[in-house]
Design brief:
The protein is mainly alpha-helical. It is built from eleven helices and five strands; from the N terminus they run H-E-H-E-E-E-H-H-H-H-H-E-H-H-H-H. It binds 2-acetamido-2-deoxy-beta-D-glucopyranose (NAG) (3 copies). One 2-acetamido-2-deoxy-beta-D-glucopyranose binds at residues 48, 51-52, 110, 113-114, 117. One 2-acetamido-2-deoxy-beta-D-glucopyranose (NAG) is lined by residues 24, 26, 176, 198. It is found in: Secreted.
C-alpha cells in the first residue's frame, strides 16, 4: 500500500514536471501604436482570442510607439502621427508593461487587450481596465506623469527606429527576435497558425494539444492521480 502511494506521488510529480518542461516560450515582439487601427485589430481579433490558450508558450514583448518621432532627445519631445493623445496612450501601455511585465505578464496582456477594445483611451477607461485586470493603477499613473514614462517611451522609440529591416507597417511582429515576412503575414491573418508553426513538444516533436484545439489534459490527469492517491490513503 505504502509503495503504491509513493508510486502515485512520483507519478503526480513526474507528470507535473514533464508538463512544465514542454514550454519553450517564443518571444513575440509587437511594434505597434495604440491609435493604429491595424494594431488594435491584431490585438483584439487575432492575438487576444488565443492568448489565454497559448500564454505558456508566449513571452510577450510590447513596444508601443509606432509611427511617431522622438524629436528632442534632451526634452523628450515626441510627435505622434495622430496627435499628442496618441503619445500619451502609448505611454500608458509603456508604463504598465514596464512596471508589471516581469511579475504579472498575463495581467499586462489583458490590460492591453482591455484598453484596445475601448474607442478612446480616456482616463476612466484606463483606470477601469487596470482594475479589471488586477493591476494597481496608481504606479502606472505616476509613471505616465513623471519622467519615467518619457524615458521608457524613448527606449521604445529607439527600438522602433533601430528595427531591422526598417519598419514599413504596423503592427510589426518579430518572433524570437527576428523578423520574417511570411510569419508576419501569417500572424496578422491567423495568429494561431503562426504560433503553432513555431512551437513543439521538445520531447516528442509533436505539436502541443493547444494547436489541435483540445483542452490541456495534463494538469487534469495530475489532479485525478492526486485524488486517487488521497482516496487510497484511507
Ligand atoms: C525561441 O527561443 C526560446 C528560448 O531561447 C527557445 O526555447 C525556443 O525553442 C525558440 N523557438 C523558436 C521557434 O525559435
Ligand atoms: C479582451 O477584451 C474583450 C473586451 O473587454 C473581452 O471580451 C475579451 O474576453 C478579452 N480577451 C482576453 C483574451 O482577455
Ligand atoms: C508614417 O507617417 C507618415 C506621415 O503621416 C507617412 O507618410 C508614412 O507612410 C507612415 N509610415 C508608416 C510606416 O506607417
Amino acid at each position: 500500500m505504502k509503495s503504491l502511494q509513493i508510486l502515485l506521488l512520483l507519478c503526480t510529480f513526474g507528470v507535473f514536471f514533464s508538463a512544465q518542461e514542454t514550454f519553450n516560450p517564443v518571444k513575440i515582439s509587437v511594434y505597434y501604436s495604440v491609435y493604429c487601427d491595424n494594431c488594435r485589430a491584431f490585438f483584439t481579433a487575432k492575438f487576444g482570442p488565443y492568448y489565454e490558450r497559448f500564454k505558456s508558450w508566449i513571452d510577450l514583448d510590447l513596444i508601443p510607439f509606432g509611427n511617431s518621432t522622438h524629436k528632442d532627445e534632451g526634452n523628450f519631445e515626441f510627435v505622434c502621427e495622430n496627435g499628442p493623445d496618441e503619445c500619451v496612450a502609448n505611454k500608458w501601455h509603456t508604463c504598465a508593461n514596464w512596471i508589471y511585465k516581469a511579475r504579472f505578464p498575463e495581467e499586462v496582456a489583458n490590460f492591453v487587450n482591455c484598453t484596445l477594445w475601448r474607442d478612446n483611451m480616456f482616463f476612466d477607461d484606463i483606470a477601469d481596465c487596470a482594475k479589471k485586470c488586477r493591476l494597481d493603477f496608481l504606479p502606472i499613473q505616476h509613471c505616465v506623469n513623471e519622467i519615467e514614462g518619457s524615458i521608457h517611451l524613448a527606449a521604445n522609440a529607439a527600438r522602433t527606429s533601430e528595427h531591422v529591416p526598417e519598419i514599413t507597417s504596423y503592427p510589426t511582429i518579430d518572433f524570437n527576435g527576428t523578423f520574417d515576412q511570411d510569419l508576419q503575414d501569417l500572424a496578422v491573418l491567423d495568429f494561431k497558425a503562426a504560433i503553432c508553426s513555431l512551437i513543439k513538444n521538445p520531447d516528442t516533436g509533436a505539436k502541443p494539444d493547444e494547436c489541435n484545439g483540445a483542452l490541456m489534459m495534463v494538469p487534469f490527469y495530475s489532479v485525478i492521480i492526486s485524488a486517487l492517491g488521497l482516496l487510497l490513503r484511507v
